[in-house]
Amino acid sequence: MAVLWLDDVRAADIDTVGGKGASLGELTAAGLPVPPGFVVTADTYRTFIEEAGIDEELFEAMDIDPEDSKALAAAHERAHELITETELPEEVREEILEAYRSVGDGEAFVAVRSSATAEDLPDASFAGQQETFLNVQAEKLVERVKECWASLFSQRAIYYRTRQGFSHDKVDIAVVVQQMVDAEKSGVMFTSHPSTGEPRIIIEAAWGLGEAVVSGSVSPDNYVVDRDSASVQEETLADKKLMMIKDSETGETSTVDVPDEKRTERVLSDDEIERLVELGCEVEDHYETPQDVEWAIYDGEVYMLQSRPITTISGSDGVEVATDGDGVDATTLSSNGNSGQKQSSSDGDTLLHGLGASPGIVSGEARIVTKLDQLDKVSEGDIIVTEMTMPDMVPAMKRAAGIVTDEGGMTSHAAIVSRELGVPAVVGTGSATRELSDGQVITIDGDKGTIQEGQKAKKEEQHEPVEEVRPKTPVKPMTATEVKVNVSIPEAAERAAATGADGVGLLRIEHMVLSLGKTPQKYIADNGEKAYVDELVEGIRGVADEFYPRAVRVRTLDAPTDEFRQLEGGDGEPNEHNPMLGYRGIRRSLDTPEAFAHELEAFRRLWEMGYDNVELMLPLVNDAEDVYRAVQLMREAGIDPEKRTWGVMIETPASALSVRELAEAGIDFASFGTNDLTQYTLAVDRNNENVADRFDELHPAVLELIGSTIETCRELGVKTSICGQAGSKPQMVQFLVNKGITSISANIDAVRDVQHEVKRVEQKLMLDSVR
Ligand code: PEP
Ligand code: MG
User: Looking at the record, which segments are called Disordered (predicted)?
Assistant: First the structure.
């Protein structure tokens, strides 16, 4: 059988129908109104290549050097040719078309979507590469299915599998064929409050197809509904200027003006809201965890297009929010109070506790890494266990299924990078490198911060590729306060941009520099000044391109000497007792102006190339004197500070207390680096797990410094922002929006929730002002 109907598919069929197919099947089986459709199974693809005898040639064509871009392109083309130009056996073709004729009226427009089985492929960049086609009818259907198959061999997919030593013939692909809903109204729904977990359902709705809401080109109505009574508690009706509709003849989508009388009209009737609430409760009951649902209404019927879990993590100091996972993985990827019950969470075999630094649950073999030269032993799917991660470890961290450290807190390198990579991590266990052994199979829970003995997460369930589980362009609530995203590793830029963030609030260039493997001095000695500046320009340009025209705030170098010491050439670095208080940030830049000049040269070149979205940010300043000196160096580097947007980080109490003088020195913005501001205000080392419970970014003293700085900046017309980790916490968001901050920059995984939280606080402010 080449096809399986969604009615007959369950979550357990993931090997046959892939993640997407299994998720839709599970929803259908739960009695939820999913548009009808079927899946061309993974076996069909496999049988096709084997029986046509193209399999050997296909996989042989993949035997290339992935760094050779010509060879890569040729491999992709050969695979595409082999798959799309080989005839599909008549009986398979007929079976697919026969199934199609049973969908809708027999001539329905359908969506054709790849659904990779992914097996134990943990790499984030894999699944997102596969094709989806909308508005397909009979004549193109089989061709489109084959193109989905061929998309298994996109250049990027080949590159990643080859680089990671993953064999190309271990991957299969199913294809979902599903009736399109010609939506009259559409939107999203959170079945519980995304930040607080309260039993309130939040619905956003607009006219026409969901794409208008998703792309942010229209702001939707917002309804907050009590789950028990289905009564609307708060509603904000937006002025909906545009809508997307589908031409019923051609299937083409176009954007049109909303007729005047409908612009400010409420999109949903009470009955429709009631129906949505009913469905929201059903889907949440089914998965036993709050869901983020995409829905559409056609001809009075509500359809569910997708459902994913919302994860609400309770931290020691309150509630932190992240969303993750695809519907089918609701029980595995996310772990909040509800889904946690589904894990085998008996504490009996918990070996160690630490801080849950990057969400997700994974099992794998522990690889104890104590020296950098041991990184080679980390293969795909292993769990790195190390004292503390270093920038050189990033390539191995990308291969790993999980990360465990002895040392470090929530703002340590390991925590920041693993969150950006979407790799589950537990940091600050104290003794993992001593208590775990090489090759021991363990399960780590990056939410709860536990490490258990043995394999607890099922292979196919763990660490679903990130692009697969997060929407490419998530629904973006319109907020007056901008919501941006932090990026530390340029490879994360695409994921970061896909969040729909209003720009990058912090691009740390340390990782670009440290990933060269040499200190800047050594790199320049070996390769010349131009090569070093080129590296910076290219690294920054990748992110600036991804976000253009949205602003990207690039911070000049701020690497503590202990990180530089690990690199080739690092012997010359000072050996400091407390690198956090030492030779880093602007102090080092001002002390070594010739080194700083290379960074400034990179900025100058980017601006000259037309990247006017690049902004410059100075780290760890204490007072206006630091700024005047930096401005002087900018001028010497050929930059006119008047013409560019630049500012400082507020990371020390001194800078917060001297913000008036900083404003006089000409800054355009001040951005709170709460990781450092907290450590310097409370005298708590941010990387020391022994005092992690004292690292409180919401401490009244820290809030006092932030609050008064925002007030002064508002008075002086200086923009304010936050780019420390605390910007991802709901309580901090509430505090900052109430104080009137200009923008908030969050971690990639928290952007969407921060957008919703900001919107909620803004609405409350507006309501309070009219009441
Ligand atoms: C901060 O200090 O909050 C910050 C964002 O900078 P970093 O974490 O790189 O020190
Ligand atoms: Mg800092």
Answer: 322-352, 449-473
